[in-house]
Predict the 3D structure of the following.
Amino acid sequence: MESLRSDVVYLDNACTTLKPQDVIDAVVEYYKRPACHGRSAHALAREVNERVEEARERVARFVNAKHIIWTKNATEALNLVINGFPFRNKKVVTTILEHHAVLLPLLRRKDLEVKIIEPTLEAWEGVIDSSVDLAVTFAVNNTTGQKQNIKEIYKLCEDNGVKLCVDGAQAVPHLKTDYPYHYLCFSAHKMCGPTGIGALALSELDLEPLVLGGGTVKEVAIDRYTLLPHEAKYEAGIQHYAGIFGFAAACKFLEQVGMEQIAEKERSLRMLIDRALSEYITYGKGEVATAIFNLPNAPCHEVALMLDKKGIAVRSGYFCAQPGVMWLGAKEGTVRVSAYFYNNEEDIKVLGDALEEIALLY
Ligand code: PLP
């Protein structure tokens, strides 16, 4: 747990988390015995093949998935779903509070009709019907820390023949993945793992690949090709094997800490955060330890820089969710504090004391 304390009060975990030594070791391990996966027959390559497939099984178990496809991050996984989905009616539903990783790929698809709703179950009930092809939404929000009732949204989708793509970037690290989905997108670096590696968990390999190339095909002629029938058809080119090893180590580490314990710790940190922010302007309600706020009359970036000077790391701005943050009423952005299970009561007290001092300046 040593590497899970930083020399600053680290409260920017929704951006990326700290890395335990086991994860760092797993990454280094690959570079000591490197080889390509799924290609050469020599011993080193066979070892990498085995470890990549073991990692796939571990990550799949962690999120209860039938299939895992390696991606660069949650963003790439979301782009793969949105661009590779076999649309019939070209109708998608999403919410106003999504990350740009959802909104931008949807907005770029000018051929799609995208209905944008408020993130409430009532709003979902009002729009999901059999004319919709795909619903894309967060399980936990990266601004307010709000949880959505994915079990109910999934049921609604299933009843209407709609596929549900869950943006799990902020959910998989914080809560047990005990909800159903058709597609689940997440990043290792937000759950104690390395950057540059993420995953798409899915129940059926029914998407068109985003990128084609080496490792994706069974047979190629000069005028045609046949894609492999399994996960490899989505993993073109040499992959981030060190990241994959680190991803599996991160899942193992979080399992050892216990996802229930993590969720419980975050609930109590969230209560402390809410108390520390109670005198200021807050936006929305949430359950995990991620919250946004402003000090009256204080520009958010100034507040974040002053906190930085006091050794406290937070983020400011729109958090890649500009329409959502503006919809919540923060036209000029906000400050975001995001704790994880290794933060403690003292960290939130230090934040609260610092904010009291800064607020006096405005
Ligand atoms: N979705 C949500 C809710 C996020 O918070 C983030 C990152 O902050 C992403 C998607 C994109 O994650 P990544 O940048 O790791 O692809």
